[in-house]
Amino acid sequence: MSVLTGPGEGEPMARAKTAGDTAATGPHGSTRRRELSGSSTRSVWGRVTGDRVLALMTPALLLVVWELLVRTGLVDSRFFPAPTTIFASMWEMILSGELVTHLLASLQRLFFGFWLGLVPALALGVAMGLSRSVRAAVMPLISGTYPIPKSALLPLILLIFGLGEMSKVVMVAIGVFYPVVLNTVSGVVQVQPIYYDVASNFGARRWRVFRTVALPGAMPSILTGVELGLGLGLILIAIAEMVGAQSGIGYMIWNAWQLYSVETMYVGLLTIAVIGYLLSLLLKEVSRLLMPWSQSR
To answer: CA torsion sign, 105 to 276 to 147 to 182?
Structure first.
């Protein structure tokens, strides 16, 4: 059953549509779109600023409570020195150059170990995600060795690589490798098969499929694995430096324990916490650049 509409009845709708098109395409509509775009940008920056303020307020509040507990005698200052005392010791170590020397040594080992573990983990993870046969062949090895405590491998690594820098770098690489490869495999496998079919129908070669389909689709999982790997690498470098090093944050903490310098121990722990936080901020910026579509969440 059809309904006939006369000219008089159809004209208001036509006029409304024409007016809407004019508002959307005319100068006033363009201005309105710019206003909405500017408002959206300001709201995003407002959320980011608010998140950063909250991120800074939480540890600051914790330090204030800690200071008050020490000052009132509710916490033993022999084991939990006041934050002001810890910061004073940190400042003295910065001025003397001791903390900077240990920090640079640890960051250098972390940097080389990170890339040594990241590159093969990405390549192997993508290959396992794209190929069922590769995944079936390699996954049992990864699943079997992943639960082994990485710190338990330190004696073996020291036996193979000695007490030099390479043993610390390898420890970091092992810590980075497993989270990245497992998250990369998971991310590539979760990409919908239709995207691979479309790429294949357009004649995309394997490298192009990797670059345009597999890698972008798995990027959220990859960045999660990188963040986990960096955290584990930071833990392992501190452990490795406690055993077989003469420099680094881990060595500084262990040496402070031997000398019963509690403030220096806390300086080392606080330094590791600051490094972890700064690396987290860096990864968020990298994520913002690689995945701009996820920033509104």
So the answer is: negative
Name the one residue in this structure whose structure tokens are 């890339």. 115
DSSP states along 71-82: HTTSS-TTTS--
DSSP assignment of 202-257 equals: TT--HHHHIIIIIHHHHHHHHHHHHHHHHHHHHHHHHHHHHHH-SSSHHHHHHHHH
The confidence band for 210, taking pLDDT boundaries of 50, 70 and 90, is confident
CA distance 162 to 121: 24
pLDDT tens readout for residues 144-194: 999 988 888 888 998 898 888 899 999 999 999 999 999 999 888 888 777
CA angle 106, 111, 117 (to 5 degrees): 120
Of 53 and 169, more confident? 169
Contact 229, 117 (CB under 8 A): yes
Q: Measured between alpha carbons, how far is 173 from 176 in angstroms, rounded to an integer? A: 5
- Residue 120 burial (10 A CB sphere; 0-12, 13-18, 19+): middle
Q: Which superfamily does 83-294 belong to? A: MetI-like (1.10.3720.10)
What residues have CB less than 8 Å from 192, skipping those under 6 apart?
A: none
Q: What is the DSSP letter of 248?
A: S
Instruction: Note the pLDDT tens digit of each residue in 257-294.
Output: 988 889 999 999 999 999 998 998 898 888 888 877 66
Residues 267 and 89 sit within 8 Å (Cβ to Cβ): yes
For residue 153, how many C-alpha atoms fall within 13 Å in the half-sphere facing its CB? 18
- Domain parsing of the chain, residue ranges: 7-69, 83-294
The total of other beta-carbon atoms located within 10 Å of residue 67's CB is 16
